Amino acid sequence: MVLAELGGRISGAVRQMSNEIIIDDKVLNDCLNEITRALIQSDVQFSIVCDMQKNIKKIVKLNDVAAGHDKRKIIKQAIFGELCRILNPGKASFTPRKGKTSVVMFVGLQGSGKTTTCTKYAHFHQKKGWRPALVCTDTFRAGAFDQLKQNAAKAKIPFYGSYTESDPVRIAVEGVERLKKENCDLIIVDTSGRHKQEAALFEEMRQLSEATKPDLVIFIMDSSIGQAAFDQARAFNQSVAVGAVIVTKLDGHAKGGGALSAVAATKSPVVFVGTGEHMDEFQVFDVEPFVKRLLGMGGDWSGLVDKIQEAMPMDQQPELLQKLSEGNFTLRTMYEQIQTILKMGPMSEVFSMLPGFNQELMPKGSEKGSQTYKLKRYLIMMDSMTKKELDSPNAELMNESRIARIAKGSGSPVEDVKEMMEAYKRMAKMWSKASKGKGLNISKKISK
Ligand code: GDP
């Protein structure tokens, strides 16, 4: 079950419960059983899911709920809290500071996406003003040196490695020393992997960690490894002190639940997720917005605003963000947003962050092409609108005759124009909610 499907099933279970007239223990059990099944089928460890069920039942005592209190809300809040608790190990990860040298070591099995992720991590921090550098200590896999060197060159990131030296520890120590002298403040050490967990690999990781004294060890986990995630993460954590997890390949057919198990095994937070092979297909991972998305509780404001900031030239941002913050979400704002979104790249990633733009409104199937097509159709429909229609904050203006005119003008079925108006209303509602202080701190974002 891919992650989007897991989200669909969990939010479906919660929605189903909300539809019931009387909320009793049977309704609660049905909802929890469906969530349990969905999580287990997504590779979350059985014991973790059982604990979650038990805790929710402990928190929600339906018979003790005083009259007038919303039982659905109490259950939803308990589910939200428990999912956050599983993903939040209660310990923050080390955050590198600009201008002060930090060494970050990447560990994981071969093929987990370590080398690709090292460059993504470096590139991410470079864009935010760090001076990152990459060290290749993988003397085991032929081609690792060239791969990282080429990636580093593409991203214009300093690189250290050796074709001839076979001792990874020596390369690591020399590389870190050299790059420190070059004033790099984030030195990223890529290590070698093996196809399977074996003693030689863990011994090498231990030696590398001892020699370079990393500020942070990040465990890279391929999200498609499923149930093996717990054991693998625990095995790495026993040889080096893992401080953070990055889950890769969440764009594929990953079940995603392994991430929850990796957090449980290492007691370390997931800090980023990889969502594609490209350098920019990399996102900061925040527990609460992620769980909200799983539960269908609205969008990931911070992620979306960051994406808009990335995609739009600096001089255009304050205006759009200001408009959004004022809750002044007109069809023209949606038009501008869609234009921005179309420049952003990976559609599925952006859609999942777009508040109010529920996946249900998108065509079935996840072909990026069809999502892009649909957005382009929306732009064409809006091209057939009058200035007044685009700038009016009042959706009620769009009566049947206006809709019929727009449909005719843009060569679209009336149902499609209506559907676009539904999307608009949802988005306007979500943005207005956000601007009333729930999660979107525009002034902070603008002045950043
Ligand atoms: P390593 O052996 O752990 O260093 O793994 P690599 O970095 O060489 O990655 C193995 C394969 O996974 C390569 O083909 C990468 O392009 C691919 N890969 C890495 N991260 C992602 C991701 O987030 N999504 C997808 N689709 N592929 C990825």
UniProtKB/TrEMBL annotation:
SUBUNIT field: Component of a signal recognition particle (SRP) complex that consists of a 7SL RNA molecule of 300 nucleotides and six protein subunits: SRP72, SRP68, SRP54, SRP19, SRP14 and SRP9.
Keyword terms of this UniProt record: Cytoplasm, Endoplasmic reticulum, GTP-binding, Hydrolase, Nucleotide-binding, Ribonucleoprotein, RNA-binding, Signal recognition particle
Domain SRP54-type proteins GTP-binding, chain residue ranges per copy: 269-282
Function of the molecule: Component of the signal recognition particle (SRP) complex, a ribonucleoprotein complex that mediates the cotranslational targeting of secretory and membrane proteins to the endoplasmic reticulum (ER). As part of the SRP complex, associates with the SRP receptor (SR) component SRPRA to target secretory proteins to the endoplasmic reticulum membrane. Binds to the signal sequence of presecretory proteins when they emerge from the ribosomes. Displays basal GTPase activity, and stimulates reciprocal GTPase activation of the SR subunit SRPRA.
CDD domains: SRP54_G
GO biological process, alphabetically ordered: SRP-dependent cotranslational protein targeting to membrane, translocation
Domain free text: The M domain binds the 7SL RNA in presence of SRP19 and binds the signal sequence of presecretory proteins.
Pfam entry (one): SRP54
PANTHER family in alphabetical order: SIGNAL RECOGNITION PARTICLE 54K PROTEIN SRP54, SIGNAL RECOGNITION PARTICLE SUBUNIT SRP54
Lineage: superkingdom: Eukaryota
The protein, known as: Signal recognition particle 54 kDa protein
GO MF term set: 7S RNA binding; endoplasmic reticulum signal peptide binding; GTP binding; GTPase activity
Main location: cytoplasm
Catalysis performed (reactions): GTP + H2O = GDP + phosphate + H(+)
Family: Belongs to the GTP-binding SRP family. SRP54 subfamily.
Cell location: Cytoplasm; Endoplasmic reticulum
Record carries keyword Repeat: no
Entry keyword Endoplasmic reticulum: yes
UniProt GO cellular component terms: cytosol; endoplasmic reticulum; signal recognition particle, endoplasmic reticulum targeting
